[in-house]
């Protein structure tokens, strides 16, 4: 194996990034159609960023091997998962006394996983993950009243 070569070709790099952006768009489409604050652009960027970090990790791994250094590239991915969780926390914390944005936070986390899968070249996994997550988000439209208190106020 020639370690002086890049991890993937430029065409493969473009394909992986396009897969991440496209699958992120699929996830964000539901949020966009529902006129949520966090929409398609955000999902595409989270997925694309995660793919970028995954690709950087793989390229860095080759450099570490070439220089005969000991390093664990999975630590980058571990940090990425935590960082995406931090983005999700921002979607949940809204400054008032209600808890909201849980679906947005969870789907942003999935967008990160879609991006990582794309960046690592697991295209089928990335697209299936995005499709299943988009289906779950779409099905939640059937439960629009879930969590609301529809009973009359009897405190008078």
Write up what this structure looks like.
- This protein is an all-alpha fold and 156 residues long.
- It has one domain.
- The protein has 5 helices and no strands.
- It has helices at 10-33, 40-66, 74-92, 102-119, 123-139.
Number of domains: 1
Low-confidence parts: none
Summarize the amount of helix as a percent range: 55-70%
Mean pLDDT reading? 79
Number of helices: 5
Compact overview of the structure:
With 156 residues, the chain is an all-alpha fold. It contains five helices and no strands. The protein has helices at 10-33, 40-66, 74-92, 102-119, 123-139.
Features:
156 residues, 5 helices, 67% helix
Please write out the topology.
Blueprint lengths: L9 H24 L6 H27 L7 H19 L9 H18 L3 H17 L17
Helix pairs in contact: 1-2, 1-4, 1-5, 2-3, 2-4, 3-4, 4-5
């Amino acid at each position: 194996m020639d370690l002086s070569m890049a991890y993937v070709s430029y065409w493969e790099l473009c394909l992986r990034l396009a897969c991440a952006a496209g699958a992120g768009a699929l996830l964000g489409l539901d949020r966009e159609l529902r006129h949520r604050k966090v929409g398609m652009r955000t999902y595409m960027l989270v997925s694309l960023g995660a793919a970028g970090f995954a690709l950087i990790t793989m390229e860095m791994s080759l450099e570490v091997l070439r220089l005969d250094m000991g390093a664990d590239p999975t630590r980058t991915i571990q940090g990425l998962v935590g960082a995406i969780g931090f983005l999700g926390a921002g979607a949940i914390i809204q400054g008032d006394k209600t808890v909201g944005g849980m679906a947005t936070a969870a789907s942003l986390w999935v967008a990160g996983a879609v991006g990582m899968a794309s960046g690592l070249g697991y295209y089928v996994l990335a697209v299936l993950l995005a499709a299943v997550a988009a289906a779950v988000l779409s099905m939640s439209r059937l439960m629009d009243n879930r969590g609301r208190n529809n009973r009359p106020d009897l405190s008078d």
